[in-house]
Each structure stands twice: as structure tokens, then as C-alpha cells.
């Protein structure tokens, strides 16, 4: 007899999403097991079960794992269905893989975004306990004064949550660099609003050891095995209970 496993874990193993993302799909009623809609992520099922997402079979064996570094342009969304706009996944249709965005950048933001079908890697990159630092270049509408910079560097209240102080460097008159190891919804934009500043351009330039470099908007490259290995074995850090999200 097969050993039963939690449904959300099986979905992650098959590369459809992280465990958290799989739980969202299950709660939304998008997953069926042997023809029956399942809404409980913790339901234990056979790893060999016929599992489908919106009627599409999820392969028993995950496709060959592939992870891409993509320069997301302004105007694209990280939703898999596009929500009426061009999706970041549109550039990867030719691969015929069940790829998903790893984390998010909002429609008005640009820069480094990972696209993958590797459930273990997705989980490692999106779970806050692994403390993957993300660096952003942020242009604001005017040069901040010292008081405004001090506000940006303080433990601000964002959506009812007191964030940890964020390292903020002034690179040029209106260009700032933010380094985040946690993330709240549109955190950088909300931080700037509290400091009396308006973001005019937001670009993510690195995630951990990965750099965007000179990769043009709308282009991608595949990660090397060494890059993936380093992402899977980051420096140890204290567990956190924060959510990662859009900036």
C-alpha cells in the first residue's frame, strides 16, 4: 500500500507551486483528486493519485527542473492567468513546462524575477526563515533630506505590522538602494509614502548571490547548477514568521 502524503506537499513535489502556494490553490477549489474537488491542504492522499489543477493533469513525475532569471519589465504581472495584462510567464510558453513566478514584483515594478518549476527551490526562496536578501534600486520624486532618510531607516508600521529597520543608502540625489530580508505588500512604496516621497521607478537588482546585471528587460537566462546549489544552501539565519510579498 502507498504511504499517504499531505496533498499540498505532493503538489510542491510535482513542481506546481510552493507548499504555501499549493495550499492557496487547494483552498480555492482548483484541485481535484481522483475526480473529487479537495479543499483541505492537509488531506493525505496517495502519491500516485490522479491529481489535476483546473482539470489539467499534474504529471506524476515533475518535469525536469529548470529555473530562469528573468528581467521583468514594467507592465507585466506575476499572476499565472495574466489578469487582463501580459503575464511574466508569456515569455516561457515555448518550454511547455509548469513554471511559476518565485515571489512577486508588482505591475509597476521591474527587475530580477525567478521563474521555476522546482518546488523545493521555490519553497526555499519564498520562506522567510531562509533570509534571502533582495536589493532594490528606487528612484523617488525628489532628493530626500536627512530626516526623510531617518524615517525610511526606522521600524515603520506597515499594514499593522512593525517592520524591522531596513538598510537604505542614498546612491545619488533621487536614487536610493533598499535591502530587504522580509517583505510586506508594496512595502517600499509604503515606506516612501510615510517619508513624504513618491516612488517613480522601482527595480530589483539582486536576490541573494544572483545579480540582474546587464540582462535587458523581457530577456532571461537559465541558472547554472552552481547558482541553484548556492540558493539551496544559504547562510544560516534565525527563523522568521514574516510573509514575502510584492514591493
Q: What percent strand? A: 25-35%
Q: Give the CATH architecture of the largest domain.
A: 2-Layer Sandwich
CATH topology of the largest domain: Pseudouridine synthase
Distance between the termini: 46 Å
CATH-level-4 superfamily name of the largest domain: Pseudouridine synthase
Q: Could you report the average pLDDT, rounded to the nearest whole number?
A: 88
How many beta-strand elements? 17
Main sheet?
Answer: 9 strands, mixed
Radius of gyration: 19 Å
Q: Which ranges are low-confidence, i.e. pLDDT below 50, for 5 or more consecutive residues?
A: 237-244
Number of structural units classed as domains: 2
Fold and architecture overview:
The chain has 247 residues and is α+β, with helices and mostly antiparallel strands. The chain folds into 2 domains: 5-57, Structural Genomics Hypothetical 15.5 Kd Protein In mrcA-pckA Intergenic Region, Chain A; 63-247, Pseudouridine synthase. It is built from 6 helices and 17 strands. The protein has helices spanning 7-13, 19-27, 119-126, 146-152, 187-194, 225-232, and strands at 5-6, 31-33, 36-37, 44-45, 51-53, 56-57, 67-72, 100-102, 110-116, 134-140, 157-158, 161-162, 168-170, 175-180, 199-207, 210-211, 220-222. Strands 7, 8, 9, 10, 13, 14, 15, 16 and 17 form a 9-stranded mixed sheet that branches. Strand 8 and strand 9 form a beta hairpin. The longest helix is centred in the first third of the chain and has 9 residues, at 19-27. The relative contact order is 0.16. Residues 237-244 have low confidence and may be disordered.
Amino acid at each position: 500500500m502507498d504511504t499517504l502524503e499531505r496533498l499540498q506537499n505532493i503538489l510542491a513535489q510535482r513542481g506546481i507551486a510552493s507548499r504555501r502556494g499549493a495550499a492557496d490553490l487547494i483552498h480555492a477549489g482548483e484541485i481535484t483528486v481522483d475526480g473529487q474537488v479537495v479543499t483541505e491542504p492537509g488531506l493525505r492522499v496517495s502519491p500516485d493519485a490522479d491529481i489535476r489543477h483546473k482539470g489539467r493533469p499534474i504529471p506524476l513525475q515533475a518535469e525536469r527542473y529548470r529555473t530562469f532569471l528573468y528581467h521583468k519589465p514594467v507592465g507585466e504581472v506575476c499572476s499565472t492567468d495574466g489578469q487582463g495584462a501580459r503575464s511574466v510567464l508569456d515569455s516561457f510558453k515555448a518550454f511547455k513546462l509548469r513554471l511559476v513566478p518565485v515571489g512577486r514584483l508588482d505591475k509597476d515594478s521591474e527587475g530580477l524575477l525567478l521563474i521555476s518549476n522546482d518546488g523545493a527551490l521555490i519553497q526555499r526562496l519564498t520562506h522567510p526563515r531562509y533570509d534571502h536578501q533582495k536589493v532594490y534600486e528606487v528612484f523617488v520624486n525628489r532628493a530626500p533630506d536627512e530626516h526623510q532618510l531617518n524615517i525610511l531607516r526606522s521600524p515603520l508600521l506597515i499594514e499593522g505590522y512593525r517592520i524591522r529597520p531596513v538598510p537604505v543608502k542614498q546612491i545619488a540625489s533621487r536614487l536610493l538602494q533598499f535591502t530587504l530580508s522580509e517583505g510586506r505588500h508594496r512595502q517600499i512604496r509604503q515606506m516612501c509614502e510615510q517619508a513624504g516621497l513618491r516612488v517613480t521607478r522601482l527595480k530589483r537588482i539582486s536576490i541573494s548571490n544572483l545579480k540582474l546585471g546587464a540582462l535587458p528587460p523581457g530577456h532571461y537566462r537559465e541558472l547554472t547548477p552552481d547558482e541553484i546549489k548556492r540558493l539551496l544552501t544559504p547562510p544560516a539565519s534565525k527563523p522568521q514568521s514574516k510573509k514575502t510579498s510584492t514591493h
